[in-house]
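We read letters as residues; the fold follows as tokens. A sample entry reads:
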Amino acid sequence: MCAALSGLRRAPPGPPPAPDAREVRLGDLPLVVLVGVTGVGKSTALDAVRRVRPDWRVLPDRRVVTDAVMIEPLAGRAVTDREERFRLTAQYRETHPGGMAQALGELLADTAVWGRAPVFDGLRGLEEVQFAADHYPAWRFVALGAPDGVRVRRLLGRADAFDQVRVAGGGAAADLHSRLLALPGVQDVFQPDEVRALAALTGGGFTADDVLARVKIVVSERRNYDPFRAEAFLRTLPPERALVLDTVALPPAGVAQAVEAWL
């Protein structure tokens, strides 16, 4: 596989390797898996946890695995537009219902590189989480959540080059409310007062196009992954398998403390 997945490869056909083999299927290892959609604070929380758990071996993140296993095989090229990536990952799930959980669990890991209890960032949505819980009984889950409006604000603040999505540019700030309402699916995610509050973000120094692009990311992602159903499912698991945390109520250090106590 690609260099970004060093120490990981697709398992060949046939029975899985013995549990004591150097290469072990990730689905058979006791992973700690972060669960959450874009902008809930997974990377920040992970950094905080690693300060108290420097021994953690963190697997290549969802973005890297998605590129290597889903996007490039389907598109034949790199894809940066977030909405196109959502479309391609939805296409992948048509033949792999477990989505990222299935793709990850089927990889072979060199335990000399990744150890026997690595960490992964992260799964999204009910289907992925349920597939992982049902098929990989050794996996444990830490779900991080935040309201959609908070996620938009965090996406605006983090200036991640990956947060790209095509929008029709050139609109004035005064037109942003109308442009937001014209986004397909926006009213399924945001209440009218929330849309007005998002439109007012231009008063904080953000351009209308930037706000529109981040809202479009959140709406597109919610179309494919429902974080609230995923969290509800995780709450049905035994507490030693799943921890659900609110990253608005807890600062990163508080998340790290809760995870450390749970582990």
Notes: The chain has a mean pLDDT of 90.
